[in-house]
Structure formats: C-alpha cells, structure tokens
Amino acid sequence: MSSSTEPKVGGEAAQSVVDTAAPVTSVASKSPMQLAMARLRKDKLSLIALGFVLFFVVIGLTSPLVTHFGWIDPLTTNQDLVDPFGRPVDKWGGISLSHPLGIDSIGRDLMSRLWSGVSLSLFIALSGTALAMILGVVLGIVSGVTGGWTDAIIGRIIDLTLAFPQTLMLLALASTGLIMVQKAFHTPAGNPTAAVYLIVVLGLFGWTGIARIVRGQVLSLREREFVHAATMMGASKYRLYFREILPNLWAPILVTFTLMMPAFVSAEAALAYLGVGINAPTPTLGNILNDSISYADLVPTFFFIPGFTIAAIVVSFNLLGDGIRDALDPKGHQ
Questions:
Q1: Fold for domain 53-74+106-327?
Q2: Across the chain, how many H-helices and E-strands are there?
Q3: What's the maximum distance between 2 C-alpha atoms anywhere in the chain?
Q4: Against a cut of 0.70, is the pTM above it?
Q5: What are φ and ψ of residue 88, in 5° steps?
Q6: pLDDT in tens, 207-218
Q7: Cα 109 from chain centroid?
Q8: What are the backbone angles phi and psi of residue 268, rounded to the nearest 5°?
C-alpha cells in the first residue's frame, strides 16, 4: 500500500513545484544596429548634438526656398542703418524686430546672410566629404583586399598626399586651379567655379585618413569565412569589394563622416580668411566671419554671432560623431 501511494505524493509535490515556478519569458535577440541605437538613446549629450545637427541641416535645406519667396534677403544693403565707419546706428549691433541678429558693416541683415551661408557652407563641406569618402573607401578596400604591389602603390600615394603642405598648395595654385576646374567642369567663372574648386580640393586632400581606416578594417575582414567562401564560389572583384566587404564597414565610415564634415566646415572658413573660396556678396560662413574681423571691436555682435554659429556646427557634429562611435563600440554597455 505504501509503495502505491508514494508516487502519487511525489507527483503532487512535483506538480506544486511546477505551479509555483516563475513563468518563463522569451528573450528576443537584438541586431547590432538595435544595440547601437539603444546605447545612443541613453547618451543625452549626443541626442542634444543630434538636435543641433538636424536644426542646421533644416536651415541649410530651407535657405533656397525662403530666399526665393523673399522671406530673407541676404544681399540688400541699408546704408542708412550704419555710419561712415561701418557701425550700426542703433545699439546692440542693429538688433531689432526687422533684423533679429543685427546687421553687418554695410547694413545687410545678418540673420539672412547666416541662413544662406549655412546652406552653402554645408553644401561645400558635404560634397567635399562625399568625394573624400568615395575615394578613401574605394582605394582602402582595393588596397586591403588586393595587397601586393597595389597596396604598396596606394600606400605611397597616401604618403605623398600627406607630405604636401595643403594650405600653401591651395594658395599657390589657386588661380591655376580655378582655371583648370572651370575648363574641366565647364562651370561659369566666379563663385560657381570657386565652389567646385573647394569641393575638389577638400576631397582630394581629405581621403587619406578614411583610406587608412578602411584598409586596416579590410585586412581583418578578408580573412573571414564569408570572404573565402565568396572567393571560392567565383565572386567577381566588384561583388567581393562592394557586396561582401563594404556592408561590414558602415560603422567606421559613418563615424568618420560625422567627424570629417565639421573639419571641412572649418576648412572653408579658414580658406575664406586666406582669400581662397566664395567671394562676397554671396554669403558663406567663412566670408561672413572674414568680413567681420575688421569690425570686431566696433561691432562685437557682427563678429561673435558668425563665430558662434561656426563653433556650434563644429561642436555639434563632433559630439554626434563621438556619440555614434561609442554607440557602435561592441564593448559598450547597453
């Protein structure tokens, strides 16, 4: 009798243990992108920087539209608003309801000029960054995958490019370079040619860093199983470079892009100060700041507002780039 009842008691005890056990919850796996976005959302400073970046991007995109409809006017001068020394007649740099950020030395609305200047400066920086990224990524992949004499030649080209004194070359070859760009791209003389020249120069001198980063990543990727499998299956070089390897490089490419953009914004401003770039009256952040230097003591707002705008763009992109780099770090915490 006792032997027949013991299994029943044991069964009831086991059933009670099962009933009181904690419910099993399913754990959903997350992709690397989802993990990176989760880390980025926890970084408040990067989110603030992202907000500023989006703000400046929207400003740049809407500039042609608001200028077309006459909502801003970056070119009209108002000589009655300034004295013979270029100082605004009104206090605080001419700040008023009509001119929320004041006026420049010849009475042009500073907010309108900054609005238009952000658009052109970001366009030049974005185009130069895109050209540099394309050259750097392609040459970095080819160098890393192919190796041998191809890797050696590309490496020597990188060393030669880095050896050139970039600023001195830009100043010395400015006139010749503008003529060459005008003939090559059939652009009108003046600012259109100057803009293309800046884009070409920034791209041709800026690709070396991303090329070295991509080459280093490719040297490890080319030993992975999926690359060997694609090679054994007879994949073409195009497929091997851009379908197998390139998708695994998006993290360093994205980080480098966000860090290169502000560097090119600063480069445009520096080149404008040196007399190479877009000429007035067409506004860019560089020539606006260059025009304001002579009036820094007379009209402080005319100097500090463009300077602060450039600083805000550069810092925002840099902080966003740092945040993205931390978010894409596989060693980071969730």
A1: MetI-like fold (1.10.3720)
A2: 14, 0
A3: 118
A4: yes
A5: -60, 140
A6: 999 999 999 999
A7: 28
A8: -60, -40
Whole-number pLDDT of residue 28: 56
Count CA within 13 A, CB hemisphere, residue 327: 25
DSSP string over 192-258: HHHHHHHHHHHHHHHSHHHHHHHHHHHHHHTTSHHHHHHHHTT--HHHIIIIIIGGGGHHHHHHHHH
- Residue that the structure tokens 């100060």 belong to: 273
Spell out the domain ranges in the chain: 53-74+106-327
What is residue 1's predicted lDDT score, i.e. its pLDDT?
A: 46
HSE on the CB side for 50, CA within 13 Å? 12
pLDDT band at 27 (very low <50, low <70, confident <90, very high): very low
The answer to whether 133 touches 260, Cβ cutoff 8 Å, is yes
Read off the tokens for 333: 């915490």
Q: Taking the CB of residue 110, how many other CB atoms lie within 10 A of it?
A: 27
End-to-end Cα spacing for the chain: 59
CA distances for 287 relative to 83, 196, 304, 322, angstroms? 22, 16, 14, 29
When pLDDT is averaged across residues 288-312 and rounded to a whole number, the result is: 89
Amino acid, res. 24 = V
- Could you identify the residue written with the tokens 């780039």? 321
Q: What is the pLDDT of residues 82-117, one digit of tens each?
A: 888 888 888 888 898 889 999 988 899 999 999 999
pLDDT at 243: 83
User: Do the Cβ atoms of 41 and 332 come closer than 8 Å?
Assistant: no
Burial 38-55 (b: 16+ CB within 10 A, else e): ebbeebeebeebbebbee
- CB 236, CB 306: distance < 8 Å: no
CA 147 to chain centre: 30
DSSP class of 82: B
- With a cut of 50, say whether residue 141 has pLDDT above it: yes
How many CB atoms neighbour CB 56 within 10 A? 19
3-state helix, strand, coil in the chain (%, to 5): 75, 0, 25
Number of residues written out for the chain: 334
